Amino acid sequence: xxxxxxxxxxxxxxxxxxxxxxxxxxxxxxxxxxxxxxxxxxxxxxxxxxxxxxxxxxxxxxxxxxxxxxxxxxxxxxxxxxxxxxxxxxxxxxxxxxxxxxxxxxxxxxxxxxxxxxxxxxxxxxxxxxxxxxxxxxxxxxxxxxxxxxxxxxxxxxxxxxxxxxxxxxxxxxxxxxxxxxxxxxxxxxxxxxxxxxxxxxxxxxxxxxxxxxxxxxxxxxxxxxxxxxxxxxxxxxxxxxxxxxxxxxxxxxxxxxxxxxxxxxxxxxxxxxxxxxxxxxxxxxxxxxxxxxxxxxxxxxxxxxxxxxxxxxxxxxxxxxxxxxxxxxxxxxxxxxxxxxxxxxxxxxxxxxxxxxxxxxxxxxxxxxxxxxxxxxxxxx
Length: 382
Known about the structure:
This protein is an alpha/beta fold.
């Protein structure tokens, strides 16, 4: 969702047209696909206000297989299994799905899983088993998420830490019973939906983790990065104030939805900060969203013009060049955006490139992909 993988060559072509050395800033990095494409050939300043992006950027930019310190998937699982064995024994009765046969019985088990939120725990890494049992994952799967996250924490600062985090994000996604994101988990309303959800409940999170960790490890270089990359989790305006002159690639989330709703679970597993959960009418909301989730000004129609004005001003302040992604699903007209760029970037040569592609629409059944025109606004300091 929102990935530029389909048009990556188009984006890189735009960057090459204005690039003058000194590195590339991916201002709204998200899944960090650009870092994966150029991180071994140029210095990258990867930034996204969503903290989980640090793991993805770190995997592409700074992770490597240090022969003196690298640990295998088997090493990590050995540490995690010790934690899991103790914690599974402490789960209450009636939260496993092994013998379920009826829809009513299944939903009773789901509810017992969700009741874990009212329990207390005598160990630190229990966030997911408490908050998310019976939502996207079962209590058993959540115990594994917590344990793998605890083991990953032991490797902070080592070159394989982000590899472990990315493998965990992958395992969570492929074992979760959602619709490709974390806006809402699914309810078992029919036997068909029950059987489908049960399929995900039975998936082995540790197996998904191990396979992904091992396959990604093969991708990693055996030497430390050649470039001094920077990875930050800042508001785009703050990042621009400290940025050296470079080429800025900006792909802001200017759409009517607030994207943080779709990523809150992976934001929480990365931060592991036991956030307050959003409450409405005295009840925790079904999606169990983090309170105070980021809301981008590019997603609020009345704030979009000023958000772009701030973006252009920040780029100009360092004399950087700019490649700005814009699609016709956005919150501001193309001509209005182009005029704003010309007004806020005096002394810049401004041009555009365009291409057609399909954009994912966040799981709508009748409209899963939509044809859009993708435009790059190129601004090069004269």
